[in-house]
Write a structure and sequence with these properties.
About 70% of the residues lie in helices and about 0% in strands. The protein is mainly α.
Length: about 160
Amino acid sequence: MRRIEQRTDPALKGLRWALLKDRSKLSSDQARDLDRLVVQFTTKRTARAWLYREQLRDILGRKQINIVSAMLAQWCTNVMRSKVEPMKQVATMIRTHFNGIVAWTRSRQTNGFIEAINGLFQAAKRKARGYTRFQTMKTVLFLIAGKLNFPAINPHAA
């Protein structure tokens, strides 16, 4: 949004990193510039987009599922009524994945662990190509995933 609005308003130039950073990590000059922008939220779509982002961060920081669900649905409704097109795309995506986002709020777990295991399995498949038995494939997978230290067991294996 800033990039689009910057074409007509040169005052937004240089605010990119202030808008992207966490507010607690801003320098005093960046915080002052950001405060100056946020005061103009009625006229600047960039300021409204930043406020919507901060509201979303606040909602996703909560742990009560019912509250997150209600607040997220209301946030999506508010954003869809606004004129900030990029945030409307975010709201549409959130509505599409609403149940998964609410479930993440409860567990705070991602699928990174499963993806790591899948990567190990794919490496084992590449190393064990040509073998037809699943038992051989399973052995290669355990050798890769086990991270065994062979020199400690057999000094000649180095």
